[in-house]
Amino acid sequence: MVYRHGQVSRSDLHEQTGIRLNSIGGETAELLERGVLRECDVQVQGRGRPRVPLEIDPGSRHVWGGAMSRGGVQVGRVSLLGKLVGEPTSQTTRGGEATLRAAVALLGEYLNQDTLAVGLTAPGFIDLSTRKMLFSPTVASGRSVSLQPIYDAAARVPIALENDAVALAARWALTHRADAETGGDVLIVRLGDGRMGSTLLVNGRPNRGSVTGANELGHTRLPVEAPKCFCGQVGCLERICSTEFLSMRDGGGASLVERAGAYDGSDLAVNEMLELLATGLSNAVNFTRVSRLVIAGELTGCKAFTKALIDRVRALTLYQLERRLRIDLWDRTEAQPARIAASLVLAHMYTSRWATLMTVDGELQDSLLAEAGRVDAALTGSMID
Fold it and tell me: N or C, which terminus of the chain has less Cβ within 10 Å?
Protein backbone atom coordinates (compact mmCIF):
# COMPACT_ATOMS: atom_id res chain seq x y z
CA MET A 1 0.00 0.00 0.00
CA VAL A 2 2.83 2.40 0.81
CA TYR A 3 4.60 1.58 -2.46
CA ARG A 4 1.41 2.04 -4.47
CA HIS A 5 0.35 5.35 -2.94
CA GLY A 6 3.75 6.93 -2.29
CA GLN A 7 2.95 8.29 1.16
CA VAL A 8 0.46 6.72 3.55
CA SER A 9 -0.08 7.27 7.28
CA ARG A 10 -0.70 4.53 9.79
CA SER A 11 -4.31 5.70 10.10
CA ASP A 12 -4.68 5.55 6.31
CA LEU A 13 -3.40 1.97 6.32
CA HIS A 14 -5.84 1.07 9.08
CA GLU A 15 -8.78 2.65 7.23
CA GLN A 16 -7.92 1.13 3.85
CA THR A 17 -7.08 -2.40 5.00
CA GLY A 18 -9.22 -2.91 8.11
CA ILE A 19 -6.17 -4.19 10.00
CA ARG A 20 -6.12 -3.14 13.66
CA LEU A 21 -4.21 0.06 14.30
CA ASN A 22 -2.04 -1.65 16.94
CA SER A 23 -1.03 -4.31 14.40
CA ILE A 24 -0.28 -1.63 11.82
CA GLY A 25 1.90 0.13 14.40
CA GLY A 26 3.88 -3.03 15.16
CA GLU A 27 4.43 -3.94 11.52
CA THR A 28 5.49 -0.44 10.47
CA ALA A 29 7.82 -0.14 13.47
CA GLU A 30 9.66 -3.26 12.29
CA LEU A 31 9.86 -1.96 8.71
CA LEU A 32 11.15 1.39 10.00
CA GLU A 33 13.82 -0.41 12.02
CA ARG A 34 14.85 -2.47 9.00
CA GLY A 35 15.20 0.66 6.87
CA VAL A 36 12.44 -0.30 4.45
CA LEU A 37 10.15 2.60 5.46
CA ARG A 38 10.83 6.10 6.71
CA GLU A 39 8.65 8.78 8.27
CA CYS A 40 7.87 12.01 6.42
CA ASP A 41 7.02 15.47 7.75
CA VAL A 42 3.99 15.66 10.03
CA GLN A 43 0.69 16.58 8.34
CA VAL A 44 -1.83 18.59 10.36
CA GLN A 45 -5.40 17.96 9.22
CA GLY A 46 -8.05 19.92 11.11
CA ARG A 47 -8.42 19.34 14.84
CA GLY A 48 -7.48 15.70 14.80
CA ARG A 49 -4.17 14.19 15.77
CA PRO A 50 -1.42 15.09 13.27
CA ARG A 51 -0.64 12.29 10.84
CA VAL A 52 2.88 11.12 10.10
CA PRO A 53 3.03 9.76 6.54
CA LEU A 54 5.22 6.77 5.76
CA GLU A 55 7.06 6.15 2.49
CA ILE A 56 9.50 3.64 1.06
CA ASP A 57 13.02 4.59 2.14
CA PRO A 58 15.12 4.77 -1.06
CA GLY A 59 18.43 5.28 0.72
CA SER A 60 18.87 3.03 3.74
CA ARG A 61 18.66 -0.39 2.12
CA HIS A 62 19.07 -1.78 -1.40
CA VAL A 63 18.57 -4.91 -3.46
CA TRP A 64 21.46 -6.51 -5.36
CA GLY A 65 20.65 -7.50 -8.93
CA GLY A 66 22.82 -9.86 -10.96
CA ALA A 67 22.14 -11.02 -14.52
CA MET A 68 24.16 -13.89 -16.02
CA SER A 69 23.96 -14.21 -19.81
CA ARG A 70 25.63 -15.91 -22.77
CA GLY A 71 28.37 -13.30 -22.93
CA GLY A 72 28.95 -12.29 -19.35
CA VAL A 73 27.36 -10.87 -16.24
CA GLN A 74 25.99 -7.49 -15.14
CA VAL A 75 25.49 -6.55 -11.50
CA GLY A 76 24.26 -3.47 -9.69
CA ARG A 77 22.64 -2.08 -6.61
CA VAL A 78 18.98 -1.09 -6.91
CA SER A 79 17.06 1.03 -4.41
CA LEU A 80 13.81 -0.15 -2.88
CA LEU A 81 12.06 2.13 -5.38
CA GLY A 82 13.62 0.25 -8.28
CA LYS A 83 16.26 2.84 -9.24
CA LEU A 84 19.87 1.92 -9.91
CA VAL A 85 22.27 3.13 -7.23
CA GLY A 86 25.25 4.24 -9.30
CA GLU A 87 26.19 2.56 -12.54
CA PRO A 88 25.95 -1.21 -13.01
CA THR A 89 29.12 -3.20 -13.56
CA SER A 90 29.38 -5.48 -16.59
CA GLN A 91 32.01 -8.15 -17.19
CA THR A 92 32.45 -10.14 -20.40
CA THR A 93 33.13 -13.87 -20.09
CA ARG A 94 33.13 -16.97 -22.25
CA GLY A 95 30.07 -18.36 -20.49
CA GLY A 96 29.53 -21.35 -18.22
CA GLU A 97 31.69 -21.57 -15.12
CA ALA A 98 33.61 -18.41 -16.08
CA THR A 99 30.36 -16.45 -15.87
CA LEU A 100 29.61 -18.04 -12.52
CA ARG A 101 33.05 -17.14 -11.15
CA ALA A 102 32.59 -13.55 -12.31
CA ALA A 103 29.17 -13.34 -10.66
CA VAL A 104 30.57 -14.69 -7.38
CA ALA A 105 33.46 -12.20 -7.41
CA LEU A 106 31.17 -9.26 -8.14
CA LEU A 107 28.68 -10.41 -5.50
CA GLY A 108 31.45 -10.37 -2.92
CA GLU A 109 32.40 -6.86 -4.01
CA TYR A 110 28.87 -5.40 -4.02
CA LEU A 111 27.22 -7.17 -1.10
CA ASN A 112 27.21 -5.33 2.26
CA GLN A 113 25.15 -4.97 5.45
CA ASP A 114 22.59 -2.78 3.67
CA THR A 115 21.72 -5.44 1.08
CA LEU A 116 18.16 -6.57 1.77
CA ALA A 117 18.11 -9.46 -0.71
CA VAL A 118 19.62 -10.69 -3.97
CA GLY A 119 17.81 -11.06 -7.29
CA LEU A 120 19.73 -13.29 -9.68
CA THR A 121 18.87 -14.35 -13.23
CA ALA A 122 20.21 -16.83 -15.76
CA PRO A 123 18.84 -18.11 -19.06
CA GLY A 124 17.60 -21.69 -19.35
CA PHE A 125 16.35 -24.17 -16.75
CA ILE A 126 17.37 -24.05 -13.09
CA ASP A 127 16.82 -26.74 -10.46
CA LEU A 128 16.51 -24.76 -7.24
CA SER A 129 16.47 -27.84 -5.03
CA THR A 130 19.95 -28.90 -6.23
CA ARG A 131 21.00 -25.33 -7.12
CA LYS A 132 22.11 -26.29 -10.60
CA MET A 133 21.75 -24.62 -13.98
CA LEU A 134 20.51 -27.56 -16.05
CA PHE A 135 20.06 -26.25 -19.56
CA SER A 136 21.35 -22.90 -20.70
CA PRO A 137 22.92 -21.15 -23.70
CA THR A 138 25.65 -20.00 -21.32
CA VAL A 139 26.93 -23.60 -21.18
CA ALA A 140 27.89 -24.75 -24.66
CA SER A 141 28.45 -28.36 -23.63
CA GLY A 142 24.93 -28.70 -22.29
CA ARG A 143 26.13 -30.06 -18.94
CA SER A 144 24.78 -28.73 -15.65
CA VAL A 145 26.64 -26.13 -13.61
CA SER A 146 26.32 -25.85 -9.83
CA LEU A 147 25.30 -22.42 -8.56
CA GLN A 148 26.24 -23.24 -4.96
CA PRO A 149 29.14 -20.71 -4.98
CA ILE A 150 26.53 -17.95 -5.39
CA TYR A 151 24.76 -19.06 -2.22
CA ASP A 152 28.05 -19.41 -0.37
CA ALA A 153 29.03 -15.86 -1.33
CA ALA A 154 25.65 -14.45 -0.30
CA ALA A 155 25.79 -16.27 3.06
CA ARG A 156 22.57 -15.44 4.97
CA VAL A 157 21.25 -12.83 2.53
CA PRO A 158 18.01 -14.10 0.88
CA ILE A 159 18.30 -15.01 -2.82
CA ALA A 160 15.59 -15.04 -5.50
CA LEU A 161 17.00 -16.97 -8.46
CA GLU A 162 14.98 -17.24 -11.67
CA ASN A 163 15.17 -17.42 -15.42
CA ASP A 164 15.72 -14.00 -17.01
CA ALA A 165 12.33 -14.10 -18.75
CA VAL A 166 10.61 -14.60 -15.38
CA ALA A 167 12.48 -11.57 -14.04
CA LEU A 168 11.22 -9.56 -16.99
CA ALA A 169 7.68 -10.55 -16.01
CA ALA A 170 8.44 -9.34 -12.49
CA ARG A 171 9.49 -6.02 -13.97
CA TRP A 172 6.23 -5.89 -15.91
CA ALA A 173 4.28 -6.60 -12.72
CA LEU A 174 5.99 -3.64 -11.02
CA THR A 175 5.51 -1.17 -13.87
CA HIS A 176 1.92 -2.31 -14.49
CA ARG A 177 1.00 -2.99 -10.89
CA ALA A 178 -2.67 -1.98 -11.26
CA ASP A 179 -3.06 -4.55 -14.03
CA ALA A 180 -1.00 -7.15 -12.17
CA GLU A 181 -3.12 -6.75 -9.05
CA THR A 182 -6.36 -7.45 -10.93
CA GLY A 183 -5.06 -10.85 -11.98
CA GLY A 184 -5.83 -12.35 -15.36
CA ASP A 185 -3.59 -14.45 -17.57
CA VAL A 186 -0.80 -12.70 -19.46
CA LEU A 187 1.77 -14.05 -21.91
CA ILE A 188 4.89 -11.87 -22.07
CA VAL A 189 7.18 -12.54 -25.04
CA ARG A 190 10.51 -10.79 -25.57
CA LEU A 191 11.74 -10.87 -29.15
CA GLY A 192 15.40 -10.39 -29.96
CA ASP A 193 17.83 -11.32 -32.70
CA GLY A 194 18.15 -15.07 -32.21
CA ARG A 195 16.64 -14.87 -28.73
CA MET A 196 13.11 -15.34 -27.47
CA GLY A 197 12.06 -15.37 -23.85
CA SER A 198 8.50 -15.85 -22.63
CA THR A 199 6.65 -16.06 -19.33
CA LEU A 200 3.06 -17.02 -18.65
CA LEU A 201 1.40 -15.27 -15.72
CA VAL A 202 -1.61 -17.22 -14.47
CA ASN A 203 -3.89 -14.97 -12.45
CA GLY A 204 -0.95 -12.65 -11.98
CA ARG A 205 1.49 -15.34 -10.82
CA PRO A 206 4.30 -16.90 -12.86
CA ASN A 207 3.57 -20.37 -14.19
CA ARG A 208 5.96 -22.69 -12.32
CA GLY A 209 5.95 -26.00 -14.14
CA SER A 210 8.26 -28.86 -13.19
CA VAL A 211 11.46 -26.80 -13.22
CA THR A 212 12.26 -23.12 -12.84
CA GLY A 213 12.63 -21.49 -16.23
CA ALA A 214 10.89 -19.56 -18.95
CA ASN A 215 7.90 -20.87 -20.84
CA GLU A 216 10.01 -22.04 -23.76
CA LEU A 217 8.09 -20.55 -26.65
CA GLY A 218 11.46 -19.96 -28.32
CA HIS A 219 11.95 -23.71 -28.56
CA THR A 220 8.63 -24.28 -30.31
CA ARG A 221 9.78 -26.15 -33.41
CA LEU A 222 8.41 -25.66 -36.89
CA PRO A 223 9.19 -27.89 -39.89
CA VAL A 224 11.33 -25.32 -41.73
CA GLU A 225 15.01 -24.98 -42.45
CA ALA A 226 16.58 -22.68 -39.89
CA PRO A 227 19.93 -22.24 -38.12
CA LYS A 228 20.66 -25.00 -35.61
CA CYS A 229 19.71 -24.02 -32.07
CA PHE A 230 21.99 -24.39 -29.04
CA CYS A 231 19.49 -26.99 -27.79
CA GLY A 232 20.61 -29.21 -30.68
CA GLN A 233 17.38 -29.01 -32.68
CA VAL A 234 16.49 -27.31 -35.96
CA GLY A 235 13.41 -25.17 -36.51
CA CYS A 236 13.28 -23.45 -33.09
CA LEU A 237 11.25 -20.25 -33.22
CA GLU A 238 13.98 -18.15 -31.63
CA ARG A 239 16.41 -19.18 -34.37
CA ILE A 240 13.80 -18.32 -37.00
CA CYS A 241 13.64 -14.84 -35.48
CA SER A 242 17.26 -14.09 -36.37
CA THR A 243 19.60 -12.41 -38.82
CA GLU A 244 21.00 -15.85 -39.72
CA PHE A 245 17.57 -17.09 -40.81
CA LEU A 246 17.07 -14.10 -43.11
CA SER A 247 20.56 -14.55 -44.54
CA MET A 248 19.85 -18.23 -45.21
CA ARG A 249 16.81 -17.18 -47.22
CA ASP A 250 18.26 -14.51 -49.49
CA GLY A 251 21.92 -14.00 -48.59
CA GLY A 252 21.29 -10.49 -47.29
CA GLY A 253 23.90 -8.92 -45.03
CA ALA A 254 21.72 -6.50 -43.04
CA SER A 255 20.72 -7.40 -39.49
CA LEU A 256 17.23 -8.39 -38.39
CA VAL A 257 16.77 -5.06 -36.60
CA GLU A 258 17.84 -3.12 -39.68
CA ARG A 259 15.53 -5.07 -41.97
CA ALA A 260 12.63 -4.88 -39.51
CA GLY A 261 13.17 -1.12 -39.22
CA ALA A 262 13.02 -0.71 -43.02
CA TYR A 263 10.15 -3.14 -43.49
CA ASP A 264 7.48 -2.07 -46.01
CA GLY A 265 5.96 -5.42 -46.92
CA SER A 266 8.21 -6.13 -49.89
CA ASP A 267 10.96 -8.07 -48.08
CA LEU A 268 10.07 -11.68 -48.87
CA ALA A 269 12.41 -13.21 -46.26
CA VAL A 270 11.00 -10.98 -43.52
CA ASN A 271 7.48 -11.84 -44.70
CA GLU A 272 8.24 -15.54 -44.27
CA MET A 273 9.71 -14.92 -40.83
CA LEU A 274 6.66 -12.89 -39.78
CA GLU A 275 4.34 -15.69 -40.89
CA LEU A 276 6.28 -18.24 -38.83
CA LEU A 277 6.47 -15.95 -35.79
CA ALA A 278 2.75 -15.26 -35.97
CA THR A 279 2.11 -19.00 -36.19
CA GLY A 280 4.05 -19.62 -32.99
CA LEU A 281 2.48 -16.70 -31.09
CA SER A 282 -1.09 -17.46 -32.19
CA ASN A 283 -0.67 -21.14 -31.30
CA ALA A 284 0.49 -20.07 -27.82
CA VAL A 285 -2.55 -17.81 -27.43
CA ASN A 286 -4.90 -20.52 -28.65
CA PHE A 287 -3.36 -23.03 -26.24
CA THR A 288 -3.26 -20.84 -23.11
CA ARG A 289 -6.34 -18.64 -23.78
CA VAL A 290 -4.62 -15.62 -22.24
CA SER A 291 -6.45 -12.32 -22.07
CA ARG A 292 -3.31 -10.33 -22.86
CA LEU A 293 -0.24 -10.82 -25.06
CA VAL A 294 2.68 -8.50 -24.32
CA ILE A 295 5.32 -8.29 -27.06
CA ALA A 296 8.54 -6.84 -25.68
CA GLY A 297 12.03 -6.02 -26.88
CA GLU A 298 13.83 -3.79 -29.33
CA LEU A 299 11.84 -5.01 -32.34
CA THR A 300 8.73 -3.29 -30.97
CA GLY A 301 10.26 -0.01 -32.14
CA CYS A 302 9.89 -1.15 -35.78
CA LYS A 303 6.32 0.03 -36.31
CA ALA A 304 5.44 -1.45 -39.73
CA PHE A 305 7.08 -4.76 -38.79
CA THR A 306 5.26 -4.95 -35.48
CA LYS A 307 1.90 -4.00 -36.99
CA ALA A 308 2.25 -6.74 -39.60
CA LEU A 309 3.10 -9.25 -36.86
CA ILE A 310 0.12 -8.25 -34.69
CA ASP A 311 -2.29 -8.31 -37.65
CA ARG A 312 -1.15 -11.81 -38.58
CA VAL A 313 -1.32 -13.08 -34.97
CA ARG A 314 -4.91 -11.87 -34.76
CA ALA A 315 -5.75 -13.48 -38.11
CA LEU A 316 -4.42 -16.86 -36.92
CA THR A 317 -5.98 -16.75 -33.45
CA LEU A 318 -9.35 -18.40 -32.90
CA TYR A 319 -12.05 -15.76 -33.35
CA GLN A 320 -13.64 -16.39 -29.97
CA LEU A 321 -10.27 -15.74 -28.32
CA GLU A 322 -9.03 -12.98 -30.64
CA ARG A 323 -11.97 -10.71 -29.85
CA ARG A 324 -11.08 -10.98 -26.15
CA LEU A 325 -7.31 -10.66 -26.65
CA ARG A 326 -5.45 -7.48 -25.80
CA ILE A 327 -2.02 -7.10 -27.43
CA ASP A 328 0.42 -4.61 -25.92
CA LEU A 329 3.89 -3.49 -26.96
CA TRP A 330 6.52 -2.92 -24.28
CA ASP A 331 9.91 -1.61 -25.32
CA ARG A 332 11.45 -0.83 -21.88
CA THR A 333 13.12 -4.19 -21.49
CA GLU A 334 16.65 -4.39 -22.86
CA ALA A 335 18.82 -1.96 -20.89
CA GLN A 336 20.06 -2.62 -17.37
CA PRO A 337 19.67 -6.40 -16.88
CA ALA A 338 20.81 -6.01 -13.26
CA ARG A 339 17.79 -3.81 -12.58
CA ILE A 340 15.49 -6.40 -14.12
CA ALA A 341 17.07 -9.11 -11.93
CA ALA A 342 16.45 -7.01 -8.82
CA SER A 343 12.78 -6.83 -9.83
CA LEU A 344 12.42 -10.44 -8.64
CA VAL A 345 12.74 -9.23 -5.07
CA LEU A 346 10.82 -5.96 -5.48
CA ALA A 347 7.82 -7.61 -7.18
CA HIS A 348 7.73 -10.12 -4.33
CA MET A 349 7.65 -7.22 -1.85
CA TYR A 350 5.18 -4.91 -3.54
CA THR A 351 2.81 -6.94 -5.75
CA SER A 352 0.47 -9.16 -3.79
CA ARG A 353 -0.26 -11.54 -6.66
CA TRP A 354 3.39 -12.09 -7.48
CA ALA A 355 5.04 -15.16 -6.03
CA THR A 356 8.68 -16.09 -6.05
CA LEU A 357 10.82 -18.90 -4.75
CA MET A 358 13.36 -17.42 -2.35
CA THR A 359 16.19 -19.02 -0.43
CA VAL A 360 16.28 -17.70 3.14
CA ASP A 361 18.85 -18.95 5.66
CA GLY A 362 19.75 -21.74 3.28
CA GLU A 363 16.18 -23.05 2.93
CA LEU A 364 14.04 -22.70 -0.19
CA GLN A 365 10.74 -21.02 0.65
CA ASP A 366 7.68 -20.94 -1.61
CA SER A 367 5.61 -17.82 -0.96
CA LEU A 368 2.51 -19.54 -2.34
CA LEU A 369 2.85 -22.37 0.17
CA ALA A 370 3.60 -19.88 2.94
CA GLU A 371 0.46 -17.94 2.02
CA ALA A 372 -1.60 -21.13 2.00
CA GLY A 373 -0.17 -22.01 5.42
CA ARG A 374 -1.21 -18.66 6.85
CA VAL A 375 -4.73 -19.12 5.48
CA ASP A 376 -4.93 -22.65 6.91
CA ALA A 377 -3.70 -21.43 10.28
CA ALA A 378 -6.29 -18.63 10.30
CA LEU A 379 -9.10 -21.03 9.39
CA THR A 380 -7.97 -23.58 11.98
CA GLY A 381 -7.79 -20.88 14.62
CA SER A 382 -11.31 -19.72 13.79
CA MET A 383 -12.64 -23.28 14.03
CA ILE A 384 -10.97 -23.79 17.41
CA ASP A 385 -12.33 -20.48 18.70
Answer: C
